[in-house]
Amino acid sequence: MSDKRASSFVETALRTRHTRRQLTQRAALGVSAAAIGPAALGSRSVAARQDGGNVVVWWNKSYYPQEDEALEQVIADWEAESGSTVELSYFTTEDLPTKILSAVEAGDVPDVVFAHLNDWQINPLLAWQGKLEDVSDVVEPMADAYTQAALDSVNLFNNETGERSYYAIPLEAQMMHIHYWKPLVEEAGLSVDDIPTEWDDFWAFWMQIQDTLREQGNEDIYAMGLPMSAEATDTYFLLQQFFQAYGVEFMNADGELTFGEDGVIDGIAQVLGWTSDFYKNGYVPEGAISWLDPDNNLNFINKTTVMTPNPSLSVPASQVEDEDVYMNQIGTQAMPNGPDGNPLTYMVSVKSAIIFSDSKNKDGAKAFMSYLIQPEHLADYLKASLGRWFPVMPEVTADPFWSETDDPHMAASYLQFQEETRPFQTSLNPAYAEVLAQNVWGNALGQIIVGGASADQAAQQAATQIEQIFERWSSGG
Amino acid sequence: MADDQIERIDSARAIPYAAQPARPRLSNEMRWALILTVPYLLVFALFVIYPIGYGLYLGSNPDSYTRLFDDPIYMRTLRNTLFFVVIGVNLKMILALVLSGYFFSQRWWIAAIFLVFILPWAIPSIPTILSFRWMLNSEWGMLNSLLDDIGIGGQPWLLRPELGLGSAIVVHIWKWLPFWTLILLAGRMAIPRDIYEAAALDGASGIRGFFGITFPLLAGLYLTCTMLSTIWTLGDFNSIYLLTGGGPFDTTQVFATLSIRYAFKIGDIETGVAVALTALPLIIPIVVFLVQRLGKEETA
Question: Which ipTM value was assigned to this complex?
Answer without folding.
Answer: 0.77
